[in-house]
Amino acid sequence: MVSSPLRPSLPLPPPEGLEGVDESTWVDVIQKMDEVYSQLVADEVALEAKNAQLEQTQQFLFSLLSSMSDVLVACNERGQIEETNAALGELVGRPEAALRGSSVYELLADPAQAERLRRLVEPRDAGQGGEVLELALRDAAGQPVPVDLNCTPRRNARGRRVGLVMVGRPLGELKRAYHQLREAHEALKRTQQQLLHSEKMASLGRLVAGVAHELNNPISFVLGNVHALKRYSERLARYVACLHDGGDAADAAALRRSLRIDHLLADLPSLIEGTLEGAQRTADIVQGLKRFSAVDREERLPVDLHGVVERAIHWVRKGTAPEFQVEWSPGPRGEVLGNAGQLMQVVMNLVQNAYDATTAPGPDGRPAAAAPALWISGRRDGDGLALDFRDNGPGIPEAHLSRLFDPFFTTKPVGKGTGLGLSISYGIVQQHGGRLSAAQAPQGGALFTLWLPLLRGPEAGT
């Protein structure tokens, strides 16, 4: 207990001359005085503790206001600033002490801005809530600075509105940050498009290699037939000219034999038929190439998945893997709704990856498989078609299975792969409502499974 010189240390004798006041009554008075004094001391201790807490709270609030990067203004209903922070003082070029008590309207760049804020600070409707305003403050150089202010009513303990609290940040900083973010996003989009285009060009390169090999046969056949037809037309022209000149029948017959007109006429149908067949074959190849590189990537049409697999196998083997042994077991037929070019890109990637895996050199420098082979089998799986791609390569390490479809992940040497083929294929399959998964095959090697939903209803012809 805190001692005080005002407190009596010994009981005082009762004052003389007071009738009806005996010693016991006086003792009661002294005890009451002692109780009151003890309570005063306790209240003084509690008050000192509360003062210390209040001082700590004030210091905490001051540190918060000082460290805020956003400007803060608290004003009363007349627009007089009651509290602010260092961020506002730095922006307008005035110390905090000078700002307190001044009018908040003096901070605004022009009277129109001040009138907008006045309608919010001094509302006729006392129940009006907070708003967000974009106002222009005048900075230290006198230039307008746009600030996005969140204005919230301030109320006293009885709920009466007594002013406004405004917190905001200069829009210049936000605009710069947004501009930098937008530039970074645009750069990322351009890089992504370039990488996708690069992977597409790699797939197209494999396709073109097969197309060049495939076109060579029919074009050479057509070219040879055209040269033969040209020689035949010259011989026919000589024979027809002889007939028109009205020459001797014996001369005409001799010319007919020397020019072998009968053999020529018998050979013409097969030459014409072969030329048409070669031209049609060339047209089919070009049409297949156009389907693969279709410009409208969002077009969805019924697609025969078996035909896609057969063309993909054909192009990969013609282009980069003529010795690759691929066994194709189609299974039940069915159509899916999708883009034939995109689906062929997926299948070509899977076939090409299988070839790369089976021909990649192992630790001893030898190929992973003595006779590279791939088995593709189709099956009905629920309401969709599933294609299993199993190779006889070294398989997929367990640690790589979870990352196999991640962008840029590749186990190929530098310069041999971008790590985008499987990632792009995975995205294409998902866009088609399907699934693409990878696992270790029980017989050894890698097993990729492509599942796509079957097309049903009028579009499927059912």
Strand order of the largest sheet: 2-1-5-4-3
Instruction: List SSEs in N-to-C order.
Output: HEEHHHEEEHHHEHEEHEEHHEE
Helix percentage: 40-55%
Reported by name, the CATH topology of the largest domain is: Heat Shock Protein 90
The span between the termini is 98 Å
- Compute the gyration radius: what is it? 47 Å
Low-confidence parts lasting 5 or more residues at pLDDT below 50? 1-6
CATH superfamily of the largest domain: Histidine kinase-like ATPase, C-terminal domain
Count the DSSP helices: 11
CATH top level assignment of the largest domain: Alpha Beta
Mean pLDDT: 78
Q: What is the count of distinct domains?
A: 4
Assign the CATH architecture of the largest domain: 2-Layer Sandwich
Q: Which outline best applies?
A: elongated
**What's the story with the biggest beta sheet?**
5 strands, antiparallel
Name the structural class: alpha+beta
The overall strand count is: 12
Strand content: 15-25%
Domain Histidine kinase: 210-456
Domain PAS: 57-140
Protein name: histidine kinase
GO molecular function, one term: phosphorelay sensor kinase activity
